[in-house]
Amino acid sequence: MKISKIGIILTVISITAGAGQADVLRASADCDADNICSISVTVRHADTGWTHYADAWEVLTPDGELLATRVLAHPHVDEQPFTRSLPRVPVPAEITSVILRAHDSVHGYGGREFRLKLDRPLQ
To answer: Which CATH superfamily is domain 5-117 in?
Structure first.
């Protein structure tokens, strides 16, 4: 039986791509008067193990400026969706909302993003 190289490549791609992209389902933030926020993010991704898993999420301004990255140290195969926090994120006072996006080890960014309105203490 002759198997083509293209068939093998397509099979490998379809197996590794099966988990899809990482989506941010929800998020919350607790900001203090010094504009330092603790941000919690819930991510959903069909992690398959070390070769394909949600490996990070980011906090961005509405203009796309990176404020912080939370690296996820291991797959969450049996814990979906999962929530992780990132303390001490400095967010400039003029920023009233942030964008959260998740990253996976195969597709990178591209799943569902989440816009979070920040409630700040009165100055």
So the answer is: Immunoglobulins (2.60.40.10)
The alpha carbons of the chain give a radius of gyration, in whole angstroms, of 18
Domain boundaries in the chain? 5-117
Residue with tokens 């409630």: 119
**Residue 90 in tokens:** 């400095």
* Closest by Cα among 83, 80, 29, 74 to 53: 74
**Residue 55 and residue 88: Cα distance in Å, rounded?**
20
Q: Is-above-0.85 flag for pTM?
A: no
> Who wins on pLDDT, 73 or 18?
73
Widest CA span of the chain, in angstroms?
A: 74
